[in-house]
């Protein structure tokens, strides 16, 4: 992320101001000293004009994207986010599609109640378990095999319905 910022000739203060975060927080994120919500990282990726997954994984660009299961990791840096995520492809910064598995924290451990927003549209497929999708003020029950598509700019949140948690295939789509 830092390399993309420097290549674009932006200062930390310029990006922080554009994302409505502190310069200190941006510095900590760039240096791997703290994790941040996907919504914050989405704002940073938009300011840098790079896809969200490029900010999340920082891998080099390639035409062929293959990522064996053994090379994927679950990023769970902050248990208060209510989820962890697993990138399914190390995407090119020019890609408009970002596949991810979101692991929704079981209900008894999930402390997240505030919805997220981001600039990407989102397609979801419930792989395991069930959630309530909070979207723009309404709750929608979704079980295994159910799908949804929505605008990320509207407030949304995956709410666990039980203590089993859930796995949600999430595809972020840039306009």
TrEMBL record:
TM ranges: none
Coiled coil: none
Record bears the keyword DNA-binding: yes
Gene3D superfamilies linked to this entry: Jelly Rolls, lambda repressor-like DNA-binding domains
Keywords in alphabetical order: DNA-binding
HTH cro/C1-type domain residues: 1-55
Pfam families recorded: Cupin_2, HTH_3
InterPro entries in UniProt: Cro/C1-type_HTH, Cupin_2, Lambda_DNA-bd_dom_sf, RmlC-like_jellyroll, RmlC_Cupin_sf, TransReg_Diox_bact_type
PANTHER family: HTH-TYPE TRANSCRIPTIONAL REGULATOR (PTHR46797), METHYLPHOSPHONATE SYNTHASE (PTHR46797:SF1)
Entry protein name: Helix-turn-helix domain-containing protein
Source organism of this protein record: Lentibacillus salinarum
């Amino acid at each position: 992320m830092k390399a993309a910022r420097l290549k674009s000739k932006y200062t930390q203060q310029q990006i922080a101001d554009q994302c409505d975060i502190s310069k200190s927080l941006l510095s900590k994120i760039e240096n791997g000293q703290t994790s941040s919500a996907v919504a914050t990282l989405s704002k940073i990726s938009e300011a840098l004009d790079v896809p969200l997954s490029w900010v999340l994984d920082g891998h080099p660009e390639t035409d062929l994207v293959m990522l064996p299961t053994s090379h994927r990791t679950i990023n769970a840096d902050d248990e208060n986010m209510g989820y962890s995520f697993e990138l399914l492809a190390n995407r090119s910064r020019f890609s408009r599609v970002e596949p991810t598995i979101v692991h929704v924290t079981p209900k008894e451990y999930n402390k997240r109640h505030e919805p997220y927003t981001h600039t990407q549209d989102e397609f979801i497929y419930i792989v395991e378990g069930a959630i309530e999708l909070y979207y723009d003020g309404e709750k929608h029950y979704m079980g295994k095999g159910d799908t949804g598509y929505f605008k990320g700019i509207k407030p949304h949140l995956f709410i666990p319905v039980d203590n089993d948690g859930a796995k949600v295939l999430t595809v972020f789509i840039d306009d």
